[in-house]
Amino acid sequence: MMKADNDFRGLKVLGLGDNVVDRYLNTGKMYPGGNALNFAVYAKMLGAEAAFLGTFGSDAAGRHVRATLEALSVPTALCRIVEGENGHADVRVVDGNREFVFSNKGGVAREHPFMPAQADLDYIASFALVHTSCYSHLNVHLATFKAASRLISYDFSYRWQVDDLIGPVAPHLDFAALSAGDVGRERAVSVLRETIAQGCGLALATLGPEGAVAYNGIDFISVPPKPTQVVDTLGAGDAFITATLLSLTASGWKRGSRLPAATIRTAMEKGADFAADICRIEGAFGHSAAIPAETPV
After folding, report:
1. CB neighbour burial string for 33-53, b if at least 16 within 10 angstroms, e if fewer
2. Which PANTHER family match (predicted)?
3. Chunked in runs of 10, what are the mean pLDDT values of the chain (297 residues)?
4. What domain count does the chain have?
């Protein structure tokens, strides 16, 4: 496992939005996850001062995620707890490959949307970078979050392919991550150009076995994946994004500045190293619990 990076010590970052449990139906285990929550945990693993802000359900899944964050010393001071189901996604492993077969689309976080209070905005302002995602049900607040934050990043996952997200969301971002492993490099390059043209500062597309490509408005920067012994690829994309973002932020990146290609490449190489590490862990970052017997699957 990659050692904590001294360059990230004291770097305050926040995962804002989604958390889930990934329920592995083959093994009867559930693992904490979600784009924003993974970011917070991975940043903590890498030595940053990371926190999480979001909504938990009151069920066993929500309790397990909260207990895991407490055990990992990831603060959750302003998080909400709402009666009902925590977000969950059901996974089956078929011939060694993960297949997502069901999701409750965030559970209580979708049913009771997060409404930022002034205390939340003041809290957000204390972090060097805030990371959220398309699964966090926060798009309507992105302009508010950008005004409150120093840097804001957003994971589009693959939803940019099926929802009209780039135009409405990109103007409110300093950094965008897009999953493009199933559409190829040419399409990825096109959407990166579109994302920057809409006002985002820096955009990055993950390409699965082809690595990743980033665009700063002038340069396209590519890195290959790092060879590794794969136990579980869950969380690899989030790990790549997290280490890349921490490296960029630690380099002194400020809103409105264009990062040089060399700085971006160095950050992406750290991302590739950390993603390879995470592929050797079950679940997004381990910490499994048994799926409760009464849970419908």
Report:
1. bbbbbbbbbbbbbbbbbbbbb
2. FRUCTOSELYSINE 6-KINASE, HEXOKINASE FAMILY MEMBER
3. 76 98 94 97 98 98 98 97 96 74 94 96 98 97 98 97 95 97 92 98 95 97 93 91 98 96 98 95 93 70
4. 1
